[in-house]
Write a structure and sequence with these properties.
By secondary structure, the protein is α+β, with helices and mostly antiparallel strands. The chain has helices at 17-29, 108-117, 173-182; strands at 39-42, 70-80, 86-94, 99-105, 121-129, 135-144, 154-161, 164-170. It has one domain: Protein Transport Mog1p, Chain A, CATH 3.40.1000.
Length: 185
Amino acid sequence: MKNAKPTFWRSGVDLTRKSLLGLVLLHILGAGWSGCPSSIRQSPNSGGNTDTAVRASQAENRLNGQSHIEFEVGNSGELRTKDGVEVGYTDYWASDGESLRVLYNDEGAAAFSKEVGGAVRIVKRGPKLDSKGKIVGERALVELPPANRGWPTRFAVMWTDGPKFHEIRSSSLRHILELEKIYKY
């Protein structure tokens, strides 16, 4: 392991000091992520089409002095839970490498109650408001149990909007809240 090169965990590409420095310089010089607003862009290999893909949107990032986070749409599809419920999912990658997963289904309040009930801790719970301030459902910010022993703490924000249920989960609370601001469903 003494002479092992670091491996970029998402793609398996070997990164040397020289290539890491090049990535940092590209970022600083603006060849990478441009501008200050957060955004979502479609990954060229995500398999989504423009009708179902999340459209690019922007929001000012005011969390922790971060000036920019960009989200790239990754894989999407359907999962079946242990209880046999079908859940749609879309994976996102933040520009700093953080991964997030969005889950959604038409189970609304039932899915919300089940997920909140499985939380380690409820950080905040209250009404879900639409862009006009109208109550459209319920929202909770929770700490989830670790996926496996020794794994990092995970968080989720979940909400109902009428009969729809949505959840954004990740080990980064800051990224969850930022994606929630710009997530269009």
